[in-house]
Amino acid sequence: DHRDLHSFPTRRSSDLIEFEEGSMISAIGNNAFEGCSRITEITLPTSVKSVGAYAFRNCTGLEKLYIGNAYGFTFGENALMGASSLSSIEILGSYDENGNKTSLGDLGNLGSDNNNLNIIIGEGVNGLNGFVADGVKTLTVYNFDELQVNGTEEQLSSIETLNILYYKDTLTADFMRKFGNCKNIKNVNIADERIGVIDAGAFVDLEKVESIVAFDKTVFDIRMFNSENLAGKKVFLKATTNTKTSGEIKFYEIGFKSAENLGNAITESFANIFDVLNDDAARIYRLNIDKSILQ
């Protein structure tokens, strides 16, 4: 039978919440886990469709929350109020009754106190349709072509950081255009070194972008530097290989040049940083981390 979990009597002394495989619990009731300060991580089974008001209030140790199936899922009022350590909510999937992948809608009023909360959209979600960021500043997605981002500018206005996980090895301009309504994105992080190529025009629509973080082996289409909104901005290249200190993550900073006299800017400013690859149009450059200018 479907059941609702209304209360958790030992909440103040427990640090592990487990649901049995095949659990049919359909709802987490109001205040159900309130005050469970020792809980650090919880995964809601795919059967759960709602979390009641203040369900995780003052769960001060809760760091990660996983939602098994977001199809038809909602949070009650201020469900996460006081969960001050919560750093991420990962949406593992969104499947309808027939097992079809669906888009993520409005999750409701999270009431989170963490301004750095990260919403991670898993591979089992094919889009953000009416998704309301509700103060969430960081969004993490996989770069698969099917992903649709249909939220309005108002719904997505709080997002300032976009993390991109690996699904394919090229970050295309078409994929990045999906975030055209995320008008306040300031930071883009390429979070997996397997994304080895950044396409021309990938960041044209990000009018407020301030920094882009990529890995040392990332290949850039040089036309990306021709975007007016990138002039004077910075790209931080995360070096995890070929560095003097093994295992240490280093960041090297390169400034984007103005679109004016782009050819001269490349010759004068990038010659010691980028190696020209064998490209007929001479538009593709690769960072060479061993150059002395970066030491």
Which terms would index this structure?
2 helices; 295 residues; mainly beta; ten-stranded mixed sheet; disordered C terminus; single chain
Structural overview:
- Helices cover 5% and strands 28% of the residues.
- It has helices spanning 173-177, 262-270; strands at residues 3-5, 25-28, 41-44, 50-51, 64-67, 74-75, 88-93, 103-104, 118-124, 127-128, 138-142, 148-149, 161-165, 170-171, 187-190, 197-198, 211-215, 219-221, 234-239, 250-255, 274-276, 284-287.
Q: Indicate the structural class.
A: mainly beta
Distance between the termini: 64 Å
Tell me the β content: 25-35%
Quick check: average pLDDT? Answer: 75
The SSE order reads EEEEEEEEEEEEEEHEEEEEEHEE
Lateral arrangement of strands in the main beta sheet: 3-5-7-9-11-13-15-17-19-20
**What best-fitting shape do the alpha-carbon axes yield?**
elongated
Oligomerization: single chain
Report on the biggest sheet.
10 strands, mixed
Would you count the extended β strands for me? 22
Contiguous runs where pLDDT drops below 50 for at least 5 residues = 7-12, 241-247, 257-295
* Count of alpha and pi helical runs: 2
Could you tell me the radius of gyration in angstroms? Answer: 22 Å
Percent range for helical residues?
under 10%
